[in-house]
Every structure is written in C-alpha cells, then in structure tokens.
Amino acid sequence: MGISTHAARPVSYFPVSPVMLFPEVLGDFSVYLWQGGDFVLYTKSGQKFTARHRQVLHANGVKEVYVQSSEKALYELYVERNLGTILLDETLPIDVRSQVFYEASNVVMQDIFDHKLPSAIRAKHFSRVAEIVKNSIRFLAAEKSLAAVAPFISHDYKTYTHCMHVFIYSVAVFQASGMNDTETFECGLGALLHDVGKAKVPRRILNKRGSLTQSEREVIKEHPVHGVSMCAHLPMTQNTINCILFHHEKLDGTGYPAGLKGDTIPLPVRIISMADIYDALTTARPYAEAMPPYEALTLIRHEMREEVDMTIFKRFVAVLSGADMI
Length: 326
Ligand SMILES: [Fe+2]
Prior knowledge:
This protein is mainly alpha-helical. The chain is 51% helix and 7% strand.
C-alpha cells in the first residue's frame, strides 16, 4: 500500500473586525472565533449576522473574528456590496461607519499594492477602487466625518495607508473648496491612486534608512510616470491622470516630472500635494519619526512657502482644525 499524497491542506484564516459584520445582512462566508487555542464556528455561511451577535462580541470584548482564507473573495464582495448602504445609514453611529470606511478601503488598497502587480492595475481592482471612492465621498461630505475618521489615521507609514490618508484629507479640502461632485470623484480617485507607481520602485530604495544616492533619487522620481502608465488601459479622465502625474510639482517650478509652475499646476493637484506633504511629515518613515501636526504645519509654512500654495495651506489648516486634528 502506498502512502497517500493527499494530505489535507491546513486551513488558514484571516482576521476581520466585528464592525465589518453588518447587522441583518446575509454573508456567504462563515465566521469563526478564536477560543481555547482553536477556531470555533460562530455564524455559518448564509446566516444573517444579527445585532444580537454583535452585542455578544462586544460584551465579551472580542476585537477580532476570523474568516477562512478560501472565502476571502466572498467576504470582499460582501463588504463592497454593502458599503454604500452602511456608510450612509445614519442609524449607525458615525464612529462605527468611520471604522467600516477605513477597514473597507484598507482591504481594497492592500490588494492593489500587495498584489505583485507591478505592470498594471487590473480592471477589476480599478472598479473596486472607483466604487469605494464614490461611496466614501458621500460619507465624507457629512458633517463631522473627518473628525470621526481621524482616530483611524495611523502614524505608521505604508504606501497604501498613505494613499488613503491623502485621499481623506484631499476630499475634505475639495469639499471645502466647493468642487462639484464629478471633479471631486475624479480627483478623489487620483488622490487615492497618486503613489501607485511606487509599486515599480524597488523596496530597498523605498525603505532605505540612510540618505539616497543621486541615482536612487532619480529612480524614485519616476513613480508618477510609472503610475500613469500602470493606469493607461483604465477608463480614467484627465483630471485623475493629472493628480497621479503632477502631485510632485512645486509652485516655484522645482518639482517633477514636468517642472510646472504656479497656476499651470491644476488646483486639485495642489491640494493633493499639500495633503501628501502633510501626511509624509506626520507619519513615521524608515528615515524619520512622525512629526506632531502643529510642527509639521509650521515647517510647511516656514520652509515650503515658495513650493506650496499658501491659500490652500490656510484652507487645509481650517479643515484640520474644524475636525479637531491639530
Ligand atoms: Fe508621490
């Protein structure tokens, strides 16, 4: 008798915040708890997750539940299908909806950035990002949303979390600038994808601790152009492309890739640049610690006044202080 080669593959699980299990919505995946050193079935696939389930988890201080990795695609589909409804459901507390927004964007962005692309964004990923942008813009437009999302903004740097932060800040300033819905959507998409070209920059350069050599700096400077080429096949408008291509331009013409000056840099792009600089300063990088908000804003005002739009700077400060973020 031969030895069976069909050994059962170990089942793997991934953690999910209980807040992502929406009450009264049917999930096509099973949910497990980690109890006594083992995964224990909590709700079965096809079963509604009720308010009662949520209460029990809350009462027991459960911070994470688990879904089998083989059901990840079903879980993601479930989140996307329900996101719009959940975010706009005013019967749910705003801090719960903020967490849902942050977790859902995290799932999609992580997929885009960690999916060993790096040649192009897949059409299916793009439509998921576009859907997130559409749903979250309506959510972020609500009063107090930025303040409610603020606690989730982490200070550890990852390219995709940085993109989410830049998106959140930029959309808040777009809305404070009275931009219309179409432009807010197109430029919000650009903000969320602005650094996607970094997927083509070798990690050893991106995460280098010491100062960069001239040639390493040149490699990093290619990321806006890489970003646009990765999106070339997608249904994107010029507004979105401009945000990806020009977010490192500076008012005094010393930026890249085109060396554009002043008003030739489109307004939404100047807003994204401001958010980009602010988030870079206030999150920890391999080569620098996170700066407190007030210090970061002082540095921008004193040392970058030739490079950034100071009218937008003032609007940015007003938006942050309105959300108690300074
Ligand atoms: Fe960038």
